Amino acid sequence: MYEVELTVWRNLMEDGTQCLGEEQYAKAENYYSQALMLADQLSVPEIVAFTLRLLATARVRLGFYELAEEGFQSALRICQEIQNAKGISEAWAGLASVAVKRGKFQAACQDYEKAIAVYPTTSPPLRLGMLYADLGQVYAALADWHKAKKAYEQAQEICRANGFLKGEGELDVLIGELCFRQKKREEATQNLKHACWVFIQILDVVALTNALQYLALLYFEQNEMRSAFECQQRAVALCLKFDTKQIFSESCFFLSKIEQSINLVEEAKYYLDLSIRYYPEQDFEMALRYQNLANLLHLTMDYSMAEQYYLKSLSLFETLGEQSHIGEVCESLTLLKETLQQGEEHSGKLEAPDAKTKMQGGFPLDAMIRLAEFYEERRSYREALECYWKALEMGRNAEIATGWIETRVQKVSKKIRRRRTI
To answer: In residue terms, where are the TPR repeats (predicted)?
Structure first.
């Protein structure tokens, strides 16, 4: 009787769902709105409720929360009247998603619990797993770690029982993040390692890259720099295959930070330069990259390039009105100029007693000490230690007393060790 209308309705729903998957939410809403008018004409409760839910879903994505809530409520009433358990569950889940967007996490938990409670055993189990995962994320937002982990584990068990390896691995990452936030670092590491193993099995390069970077961050926070370096290096290599310029830039930036921590200065400069070349914006993050690279160039005595990058970072910080960073860069430039002046003064005094205390490029011992003190004052202890070690080497080569430099090396080393235990 209504075969033509039903066919048109089905086509509109398919078009809307395709747009929803492609994140074209306004188009999806338009298709679903047309489908709802036809559904009302067909007067089939299941069709009306289904259309209402998908239309409300599109409106959640568009930020039309009041309209979305009304749609889910209407779908819930219809499904309760016809005793459609799957529809009731999906309507409660939709209301939970609106509550999450509004920051009403307690209400969202209650709605997800209701959705799970009425979910039919005859319906697809993986959808139930998704509901548990969503519930876990809301509990995590509330910092209710025990309930969050329990929900994640239930979701993971469903994925495992149904052979859904990707879901199992993604939940490993979520549980790992949860453990990390509770400072359960060993458990977090185990979960992230298992996630990497899962993603390797299913050849999911994107998911593997994300898990590797999370594992690298975990190692970095635990000061296990060699392990952090290995994980992040693999992640950067994988990023080349698929990621956007910004993500690749961020991956290189983090790898550079790790390399600086293990004194791979030349490699750190290379990846920081890559990070700058691929970063798409002239914003605060780019200014930090310029400043960081300038510091490394200063440390390796490439003064002209260091000055260029200090000036680039200064220009951006001034545009952004970042006064504290402007002050830092100005101090760095002042120190750089003083270092250059001292080098010029020493260059004409080859017979002076301290002539042996210069490194290649005319860098004098006192300038290296000042650079170390500069970093130490700003609590950049690793950079300070690197400079003190170089100063110690210079002093020994010049056959002068170095006990006072050794004392400073020990002092800064102690500060680094103390920072590891915090």
So the answer is: 89-122, 129-162, 365-398
Domains and CATH numbers, the chain: 1-123 (1.25.40.10), 353-422 (no CATH)
Q: CB burial class (10 A; 0-12, 13-18, 19+) of residue 334? A: exposed
What's the rounded Cα separation, in Å, for the pair 80 and 99? Answer: 21
Whether the CB-CB separation of 178 and 192 falls below 8 Å is answered with: no
Model's pTM, two decimal places?
A: 0.73
- pLDDT of the chain, 422 residues: tens digit per residue: 478 888 999 999 999 999 999 999 999 999 999 999 999 888 889 999 999 999 999 999 999 999 999 999 999 999 999 999 999 999 999 999 999 999 999 999 999 999 999 999 999 999 999 999 999 999 999 999 999 999 999 999 999 999 999 999 999 999 999 999 898 989 999 999 999 999 999 999 889 998 999 999 999 888 888 999 999 999 998 887 776 788 888 899 999 989 888 878 889 999 999 999 989 888 999 999 999 999 888 888 788 898 889 899 988 988 888 888 888 888 888 888 777 766 555 544 434 344 344 444 445 666 677 777 777 776 777 777 777 777 777 777 777 777 777 777 777 777 776 655 44
Q: Residue 22 CB: number of other CB atoms within 10 A?
A: 10
What's the Cα-to-Cα distance from 140 to each of 44, 89, 152, 199, rounded to whole Å? Answer: 39, 22, 10, 24
